[in-house]
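quick one: adenosine-5'-triphosphate bound model?
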Amino acid sequence: MSALLEVDSVSVSFDGFKAINNLSFNIGAVELRAVIGPNGAGKTTFMDIVTGKTKPDAGRVLWGEDSRSLLKMNEAQIARAGVGRKFQRPTVFEDQSVSANLTMALKANRGPFGVLFWRPSATSAARVAELAEEVGLSEQIDRKAGELSHGQKQWLEIGMLLAQEPRLLLVDEPAAGMTLAEREQTTTLLRRLAETRAVVVVEHDMDFVRRLECKVTVLHQGSVLAEGSLDHVTRNPDVIEVYLGR
Ligand SMILES: Nc1ncnc2c1ncn2[C@@H]1O[C@H](COP(=O)(O)OP(=O)(O)OP(=O)(O)O)[C@@H](O)[C@H]1O
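yep, here:
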């Protein structure tokens, strides 16, 4: 498996506290990965480092076939290189329709000059319809985003990220606040998206992680504590101790 993202010996401290401690792991180009770990394990900081929000004190973060350093790029350059991040709370334009939200996301993909001369076209309308279909919102395409359920808003935001054609999608706690039916649809969606790209899901909900049926990386104190199938890592005595306490 060739790595799309290689995190190598990365450390970062905040006021002397090592939030990420010699962290190393790889994500393949076509892969679904769950990252789990107790509160404060470093999951958010890991995503902040990959997206350029936080610069580590040591280590390397390499990207793509030519192993470019993400640490030399700013947040916008990293996003353009193909890293999309879905935050926990949806940030869609509530007063705009699903199709207008997706159209704006397509437009944002053009860069400053592209945006200046951009006009909606038949091609962009077709792409908007395709994106809505991809995230299961075809029937909601003319509804205002503010009228959607929490789960549907999350899917819309995923659709907006897909407009940017990311090669790696980082998804932070997608199951939070969703109904059971929405969670099931979300696992199906994430599994499908990971058939053609890398998707990394940070999640606390173990039932949700189980349904993803993917490799799991357990973080603890800023390092990888265990890695493998969910059954494999949950049998690991170190993982049991960290989760169930001493
Ligand atoms: N900007 C910061 N300044 C100081 N400390 C920070 C900062 N960001 C994170 N930390 C600390 O680093 C550690 C790792 O935090 P992080 O948010 O990455 O953990 P997490 O695994 O995402 O936790 P949670 O599951 O609670 O979201 C925590 O102890 C946190 O308090």
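The domain at 3-82+166-244 is CATH 3.40.50.300 (Rossmann fold).
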